[in-house]
């Protein structure tokens, strides 16, 4: 369990720095005859679009959220892989939960943030995550975070 806690803590630190920063996704679109020119490539569920060049290549800048959304959609018919993608997304879920709390932007939105905290805790329990910070049990994190929200 200690290894899982440390790994999750490291992933949270990385997620905080990467959460809203765009990432580049690139590739080549081709068929049996070769590269396809002028093909629109879109990140599912967004307005982010690129068009393939003369070599069939494209580049898209997308946020981590968009990339995880795309990954979930791509493996939606495989429950085991979908579960792994959702587990990998947990550090980003943590950042989304904690950023407004750390920035003291919860006033007037306490109910929404408490719901988000409850959903996050449910996911943590479902994945067997028993602590968020090293040495702090999950339930202690919950109580501390709930108090910071004002609940």
Task: Explain what this protein looks like in three dimensions.
There is one protein chain. The chain has helices spanning 2-18, 64-74, 79-88, 90-102, 110-126, 138-149, and strands spanning 23-28, 30-31, 34-35, 40-42, 49-51, 57-62, 131-133, 136-137. With 151 residues, the protein is α+β, with helices and mostly antiparallel strands. Strand 4 (40-42) and strand 5 (49-51) form a beta hairpin. The longest helix is centred in the first third of the chain and has 17 residues, at 2-18.
Structural class: alpha+beta
Strand order of the largest sheet: 1-6
Q: Assembly state here?
A: single chain
Q: pLDDT below 50 for ≥5 consecutive residues: which ranges?
A: 1-7, 12-19
Element-level helix/strand string: HEEEEEEHHHHEEH
Number of strands: 8
**How many separate helices?**
6
Percent helix, as a range, is 40-55%
Distance between the termini: 29 Å
Q: What does the largest sheet look like? A: 2 strands, antiparallel
Rg from Cα: 19 Å
Shape: elongated
User: Averaging pLDDT over every residue, what do you get?
Assistant: 81
How many domains? The number is 2
Indicate the proportion of strand residues: 15-25%
Q: Which key terms come to mind for this protein?
A:
single chain; 151 residues; alpha+beta; 2 domains; two-stranded antiparallel ribbon; two-stranded antiparallel sheet; elongated
Structure, briefly:
This protein has 151 residues and is α+β, with helices and mostly antiparallel strands. The chain contains 6 helices and 8 strands. It folds into 2 domains: 2-21 and 63-149, no CATH class; 22-62, no CATH class.
């Amino acid at each position: 369990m200690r290894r899982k806690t440390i790994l999750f803590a490291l992933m949270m630190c990385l997620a905080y720095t990467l959460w809203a920063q765009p990432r580049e996704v690139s590739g080549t679109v081709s068929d049996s005859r070769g590269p396809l020119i002028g093909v629109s490539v879109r990140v599912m569920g967004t307005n982010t679009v690129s068009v393939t060049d003369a070599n069939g290549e494209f580049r898209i800048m997308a946020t981590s959220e968009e990339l995880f959304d795309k990954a979930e959609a791509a493996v939606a018919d495989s429950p085991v892989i979908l579960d792994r993608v959702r587990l990998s997304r947990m550090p980003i879920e943590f950042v989304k939960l904690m950023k407004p709390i750390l920035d003291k932007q919860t006033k007037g939105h306490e109910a929404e943030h408490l719901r988000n905290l409850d959903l996050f805790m449910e996911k943590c329990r479902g994945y067997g995550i028993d602590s968020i910070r090293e040495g702090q049990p999950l339930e202690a994190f919950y109580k501390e975070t709930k108090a910071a929200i004002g609940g």
